Amino acid sequence: MDHSSDEDTEISDSEIDDYEGKIYARLMSGDLKLNKNGENYICPFCSSKKKNYSKSSLVQHASGVSAAPNREAKEKAVHRALFKYLKNGLAKSPEPGSHATPVEPQPLQNRDEKFVWPWMGVLVNVPTEWKDGRQIGESGNRLKEQLSHFCPLRVIPLWTFRGHTGNAIVEFGKDWNGFRNARTFESHFAAGGFGKKDWIGKKNQGSELYGWLARAEDYNSPGIIADHLRKNGDLKSVNDLAKEGARKNDRLVANLANQIEVKNRYLQELECKYSETTASLEKMMGQREQLLQSYNEGL
């Protein structure tokens, strides 16, 4: 990908959005093209490193650099454009052998496994920097925008008195669509080598984000992440929620049946009153006819 005409031009923070739009338009038009090395991609804006990425890994790289507060404005802008292109442009026409994003989750193996509910994801390695006496990092809205293809309801950065901890909680809601989105979120990070096992196993995690679906282990661990999970959620399995849903449906059916029975009794009472009123009216009409007949005979 050649962007040499712009590579010596510096931009300010106020120009990031405009420059991002310019680079994104060139990517979408084909004026700028991604370089590939076999099945892998090379970040066009970090050419000095010449590192190979799978598509999902390149997405994570672009996301991490664009969110890093200590990066230059231009570096953020071009990586934001690359991230947007990978998610919106390239994803619409995947090349043979490329890894589609987001990654579809595998069928759930253990329906009794405990997850944090409402469904929550854990996001770590969020870039931060020391500024004005504390750590600062990306806002929840910005992180939510970066994760928009997983449909999160909210992203909550975790702070202490020292500032941004580099951790965040991703909320997906209580329903089954939220669970699917949360599992897709986890599968996507794991497929790119940025899941929980990768985070624990790597000595140098780099600048990319790591994420996974919160489970019992996260809930019961010490630290700020577990504190937030325990304060805002419970541990439930898919079977637990399915049983709760069945009980709620049973109660709903019972309530509806009771309402129908009450309305049927009311209708029966109305029918009885209608019959009584009709009989009384017929009796009165009969008496009236008799009176008229007697009157006419008397004339």
From TrEMBL:
Record-linked Pfam families: XS, zf-XS
Domain XS: 112-221
PANTHER family in alphabetical order: OS01G0633200 PROTEIN, RIBONUCLEASE P SUBUNIT P38
Domain Zinc finger-XS residue range list: 43-83
Keyword Transferase: no
InterPro entries: FDM1-5/IDN2 (IPR045177), XS_domain (IPR005380), XS_domain_sf (IPR038588), Znf-XS_domain (IPR005381)
Protein name (Swiss-Prot/TrEMBL): Putative transcription factor
